[in-house]
Amino acid sequence: MATSGSMGVAALFLRRAVAARASRALVAFATSRRLLRTSPPSRAFAKELFLGKIEKKEVFPFPEVSQDELNEINQFVGPVEKFFTEEVDSERIDREGKIPKETLEKLKSLGLFGLQVPEEYGGLGLSNTMYARLGEIVGLDASIAVTLAAHQAIGLKGIILAGTKEQKAKYLPKLASGEHIAAFCLTEPSSGSDAASIKSRATLSEDKKHYILNGSKVWITNGGLANVFTVFAKTEVVDSDSSVKDKITAFIVERAFGGVTNGKPEDKLGIRGSNTCEVHFENTKVPIENVLGEVGGGFKVAMNILNSGRFSMGSTVAGMLKKLIEMTAAYACTRKQFNKNLSEFGLIQEKFALMAQKAYVMESMAYLTAGMLDQPGFPDCSIEAAMVKVFSSEGAWQCVSEALQILGGSGYVKDYPYERFLRDSRILLIFEGTNEILRMYIALTGLQHAGRVLTARIKELKRGNMTTIIETVGQRLRDSLGRTVDLGLTGKLGAVHPSVADSASKLEENVYYFGRTVETLLLRFGKTITEEQMILKRVANILINLYGMTAVLSRASHSIRVGIRNHDHEVLLANIFCAEAYYQNLFTLSQLDKHSPENLDEQIKKVSQQILEKQAYVCAHPLDRTS
Amino acid sequence: MSWAQAILLARGLSRGWGGICGAALMGAPFSQVPLRVPRGLHCSAAAHNSDSWLVPPGPEPRKGPTKALTLHEELFQQAPEGARDKANFVRAVQNFGQHNVHKRGHVDFIYLALRKMREYGVERDLAVYNLLLDIFPKEVFRPRSIFQSMFIHYPRQQECGIAVLEQMESHGVMPNKETEFLLIQIFGRKSYPMLKYVRMKLWFSRFKNINPFPVPRDLPQDPLDLAKLGLRHMEPNLSATVTIYQMPSSKDSTGTADPTEPHIVGIQTPDQQAALAHHNPARPIFVEGPFSLWLRDKCVYYHILRADLLPPEEREVEEIPEEWNLHYPMQLDLDYGRSGWDDYEFDIHKVEEGPVFAICMAGAHDQATLAKWIQGLQETNPALAQIPVVFRLAGSTGELLASSSGLEEPPPPPPPPEGQEEEEDSQQRQQQGQS
């Protein structure tokens, strides 16, 4: 972790510095002051959005890495990129349904199996930012990306996060070198997100030196390749009140412990080269030293691993999209119809703008999040990471679909790689927590924070405290009369550059009214808001947009000020995205209003109820007659 | 026209006008209307046995047509006994046309034919109705002037035409273009049968699919199948399983089962099974019934296995385990809940009831039979072995039973396998209602 933290300090310093000055020079200075930063990690950005506030110092200026680090990573990226573009045969991997041995060996020798393993354990010890940068290249082949992610983003992450020194020393070196491959075994036939229905069980042996592990896990990526498994199973734990309870415990299980078998690899729609199969544990003897974290503390371990692994999807997808833009642009500029290149048609141009915009936003979000994660003090950026995951997976699906639209028939046949991109990108919306579940997470975590902060206020409102009520009503009146929101982003010493000031005021307005809406929602539903999934989805959608807006504003402002190449293009993209997101947000906010005509929740619920009751499409055939 | 005829006519016309306004306008038929309405609500098909109410009852002493009636009766007698089908019915109608070139007495013949239709099993045949209408002489009854149409032109014939349509209506037969054509030919556009026709056209299509829980037109004859149908009808949950706990041991030709081994069919959903498994064995559960269920013109009886609602202090609050959802919090740590504006929980129409664990239909309603059901249920619901089961068979009889038999008599009349007994039953009810 050579320079992690530099960005944060740079951020601190820059806040006080004159905003328009180039920051590169400051970084070196800031790095030397790293140790001075002792304040506790500031409050997370996304959570504050729920209160209608923008925590500027978290996101402005856009995080930057030092020149040294950049050189270092570029040296590293070069050979990897060369390997991926020249040697990896994605078509063959997809066709044969496995990654060839020599490719795997080469990946290992490049060090890609231990990117985030600390250097003292033989890994590269990359910061999150650097990890994201490499993800861009790894993303060129989805099967390899998934295999690597299953290995290090979740498979061995548990050991890094919760392992003891001995466990780290024992397992990490071999895992980092790729000699051993890791897998993460959580999902069971009866249990996806539902931890209570985990059936695998580990019982302490009589000599109390082993756990006997029994159970089956499904959809385990790398299940057939892995030698080291992070397994979650129920154990009996004596509670503080001396009652025996079943709790989840995490274990490090080696294949060599015996009793570990796996089924045959699943035949999948996409990411066909990754190995996904069932893994069975039958009376596997796991020494008690291999308990990961505390006995009974497996739930937290699992949550931490899952939450930490998500942010990298943004850059991975962006890498894939950039490649896709190159390929489709080449096609659009050569294919002629009606004596015109495809590129001259407005409807085709629009698609390229969309792809570029999505790639730009997800890149910005991913690196902003990575930068936040790299700040010292283990900041909790799980909401941000989840937002990156949701946005990038949906962006990927949408963009690949649009790209296929540009390509027409050639996008649909196996002679070209495009259909593989489509198949591969579909899984992104499903794994690492489906997007629906992550939206719940995003919304509920934020609402929990806002709900706590607003408790006093809401209680007073409910009790009927006149001053609070009058204050609120007055505020609402002023809002409805169209107040201009100023959260300090724009202006002379504002955090954003004047070129994107308009977009910044849009963001400010959205954030302010989002805060008001959150307050109303909490007032309306209180803790029972957990049942209102359609509302939560909208809250999450707004938040994702707000975060995306913030990320692009921060990045574009930074690019202009620093003078990055083609920053005018960035400004265009940023402004387009912000305007679109702004209007989307306005619409979504009005949908959150109980009595607005945009709110169709009741009707939607009724329709689905009737369908689900009959378990069929309800309407009669259009040709049916009554007479 | 005699007084009696005039009243009859007025009554008939009021029906022809579409019931609603007719009942409101006319004083005379008003007394009958409320009697019929509740039955209609219960089950529209229950009116079958009296569907010829517009048709004057056969043996009614009349001066003129009595002779003619017997005459026409013979037309139907001509058909060989036992072959009462459409072909013979059509032949009888055609015979009338051939024997009676001047169509003398055609109104009486149509009334007679309408009464006979059920016997011949053609009461739902549109072609036959059109054939009946075709008996009317064409063009004769058409009003030629505005005054003729203002004062009911050929009332007896119009009334007869309405009667045909009325019978179509009660059997759910939708008139078609041919009907319209015939009516225009016979009575003209501005006539009451035509009005009736237009209204039928309008409302039939709207009412045809009004029932969200449609019952098949032809009910299964086998009581076992009928019971299955009834159970499925009452339990809309598609994941419910129907179990036959006992097959009827022997059947005679009439389809009635041997009383010693009647059929027992039950239905239970997985949710009900789970609820039963969680039932506190200290609290008894009850077998209650029989309750009646009308499926078109058939009445079946069912029993339920239910428990009383738990008193509020004993209800377990569903606890959300702490470490449940790996991905998002299942509950928020806030100490305020939903505000009144968004609280739809309270509903003045909602009555809390105890849980129903299973429903069954059996060929007999005695405790021995139902005990077999409970025994059968135990196979899939082992928890039932620990729970005391109380049979409350007479106590909670529905209104039907209360009116048809005394309270001391526990078993209700067994579900009639054929429509006949039950017709008597409903007639009995009707009489009680009238008295």
From TrEMBL, chain A:
Its cofactor is FAD. Keywords: Acetylation, FAD, Flavoprotein, Membrane, Mitochondrion, Mitochondrion inner membrane, Oxidoreductase, Phosphoprotein, Transit peptide. It catalyses: (9Z)-hexadecenoyl-CoA + oxidized [electron-transfer flavoprotein] + H(+) = (2E,9Z)-hexadecadienoyl-CoA + reduced [electron-transfer flavoprotein]; oxidized [electron-transfer flavoprotein] + hexadecanoyl-CoA + H(+) = (2E)-hexadecenoyl-CoA + reduced [electron-transfer flavoprotein]; (9Z,12Z)-octadecadienoyl-CoA + oxidized [electron-transfer flavoprotein] + H(+) = (2E,9Z,12Z)-octadecatrienoyl-CoA + reduced [electron-transfer flavoprotein]; octadecanoyl-CoA + oxidized [electron-transfer flavoprotein] + H(+) = (2E)-octadecenoyl-CoA + reduced [electron-transfer flavoprotein]. It is found in: Mitochondrion inner membrane. Residues 498-617 form the ACAD9/ACADV-like C-terminal domain. Coiled coil: none annotated. Residues 296-443 form the Acyl-CoA dehydrogenase/oxidase C-terminal domain. One of its GO terms (molecular function) is flavin adenine dinucleotide binding. Residues 183-283 form the Acyl-CoA oxidase/dehydrogenase middle domain. It holds the Pfam family Acyl-CoA_dh_1. It is a peripheral membrane protein. InterPro entries: ACAD9/ACADV-like_C, Acyl-CoA_DH_CS, Acyl-CoA_Oxase/DH_mid-dom, Acyl-CoA_Oxase/DH_mid-dom_sf, AcylCo_DH-like_C, AcylCo_DH/oxidase_C, AcylCoA_DH/ox_N, AcylCoA_DH/ox_N_sf. The keyword Mitochondrion applies. One of its GO terms (biological process) is fatty acid metabolic process. Residues 74-179 form the Acyl-CoA dehydrogenase/oxidase N-terminal domain. Its main location: mitochondrion. GO terms for cellular component: mitochondrial inner membrane. Homodimer. Interacts with NDUFAF1 and ECSIT. Part of the mitochondrial complex I assembly/MCIA complex that comprises at least the core subunits TMEM126B, NDUFAF1, ECSIT and ACAD9 and complement subunits such as COA1 and TMEM186. Interacts with TMEM70 and TMEM242. As part of the MCIA complex, primarily participates in the assembly of the mitochondrial complex I and therefore plays a role in oxidative phosphorylation. This moonlighting protein also has a dehydrogenase activity toward a broad range of substrates with greater specificity for long-chain unsaturated acyl-CoAs. However, in vivo, it does not seem to play a primary role in fatty acid oxidation. In addition, the function in complex I assembly is independent of the dehydrogenase activity of the protein. Belongs to the acyl-CoA dehydrogenase family. This is Complex I assembly factor ACAD9, mitochondrial. It comes from Neomonachus schauinslandi.
TrEMBL record, chain B:
Residues 409-418 have a biased composition (Pro residues). It is found in: Cytoplasm; Mitochondrion; Nucleus. Residues 269-394 form the ECSIT C-terminal domain. Residues 400-435 are annotated as: Disordered. SMART domains: ECSIT_Cterm. One of its GO terms (cellular component) is nucleus. Keywords: Cytoplasm, Immunity, Innate immunity, Mitochondrion, Nucleus, Signal, Transit peptide. InterPro entries: ECIST_C (IPR029342), ECSIT (IPR010418), ECSIT_N (IPR046448). The keyword Protein transport does not apply. Its main location: cytoplasm. The keyword Zinc-finger does not apply. GO terms for biological process: cell surface receptor protein serine/threonine kinase signaling pathway; innate immune response. Residues 1-18 form the signal peptide. Pfam families: ECSIT_C, ECSIT_N. Adapter protein that plays a role in different signaling pathways including TLRs and IL-1 pathways or innate antiviral induction signaling. Plays a role in the activation of NF-kappa-B by forming a signal complex with TRAF6 and TAK1/MAP3K7 to activate TAK1/MAP3K7 leading to activation of IKKs. Once ubiquitinated, interacts with the dissociated RELA and NFKB1 proteins and translocates to the nucleus where it induces NF-kappa-B-dependent gene expression. As part of the MCIA complex, involved in the assembly of the mitochondrial complex I. Interacts with MAP3K1, SMAD4 and TRAF6. Interacts with SMAD1 only after BMP4-treatment. Part of the mitochondrial complex I assembly/MCIA complex that comprises at least the core subunits TMEM126B, NDUFAF1, ECSIT and ACAD9 and complement subunits such as COA1 and TMEM186. Interacts with NDUFAF1. Interacts with ACAD9. Interacts with TRIM59. Interacts with TMEM70 and TMEM242. Interacts (when ubiquitinated) with NF-kappa-B subunits RELA and NFKB1. Interacts with RIGI, IFIT1 and MAVS; these interactions promote RLR-mediated type I IFN induction. Belongs to the ECSIT family. This is Evolutionarily conserved signaling intermediate in Toll pathway, mitochondrial. It comes from Neomonachus schauinslandi (Hawaiian monk seal). The lineage of its organism: Eukaryota, Metazoa, Chordata, Craniata, Vertebrata.
